[in-house]
Amino acid sequence: MSDARIQGYSRALFEIARAEGTLDEVEDELFRFARSYESSEELRTALTDDQVPAEKRQAIVEDLLGGKATSTTTQLVSMVVGSGRGRDLPAIVDQLVQRAAGSKDLDVAEVRTAIALTADQQARLKAALENATGKSISLKTVVDASVLGGIVATIGDTVIDDTVRTRIDQLKSRL
Amino acid sequence: MSFLSTISLIAAENVPNDGVGSTSLNPILPPIGEMIIGSLASIIVFSLIVKFAGPTIKKSMSDRTARIQKDLDDSAAAASAAEAEASKIRAAKGDIDAERSRLYADADTQAEALLADGRVRIDAEMVDLETRAEAELVSAAGRSGDELRAEIARYSSGAIDSVVNGTLDNAAHQDLIESFIARVGSSTGAAS
Question: Would you say residue B7 lies in a domain?
């Protein structure tokens, strides 16, 4: 999909969520769903297979998110998948997150960890990143087992990587 | 009666007859009349022979002489040709000997040249082979070293993953997270 179309979809989703007054919640749910979508090949296949009717793909989304996310989030994802743009869902959501953060003069910090962070850890990490970068941060956490341990934070073009995976990779390259 | 019979009869009338037969007065020579008649008869016979058989005999003798001469000439010519042929053969034999000597000399020269070239080529090939073998040995040693390092790295990588996965419990995860937060929090405006 072209950047313009991704921008269009993300703007539409942003405006709907803001109009509904659930922007923060929807943004967070969409972000988590997009990361789950990226990490699950089975989910990607189910939501992007053109042989599967749009209604069935939307039913899959509703089964997955129904009761676990707000109805706005469910309907927005269902709309994107039903229109055959499932492949671009992560890019659309990332644009939405950037747009939402930008609307509040925040920079998005995507943080990946091997285990889930507690609320306290998230708050302290947010403060630490704001202190390190001098920017106001919108923290987005992703549980990613591939990092093995530690944290990697991405704020725009800046990457702060202190993961076990990276250390192992560096050790392997030295070997 | 023929002429000869008449002469014989006349002669016989001059020969003394003792009653038994004609008897010569000389034990060696016949009676003169017989001698004359015999001589005349001989002359006549000889003359006739000379007259009638002489040309034939003479021609025959001439032919024979000519034939013998021809044979002699042919023999001389054959002998001359044989001598010439023998000379040629002797010359040819001499040429063959010279040619054989020349061929032997050429063969020796070529063999020496080939031997010299062969020695030079073999020396060069030996040097080339030694150089290539040394390069191959160095390359093989390098490859073996690289393969060994790659093998060690592969085993080490697997071992590291296994050890890390086995030792990263929740406490270790928490330590890593807290360490990260503390480190980032202590830095100011210099994220890397």
Answer: yes
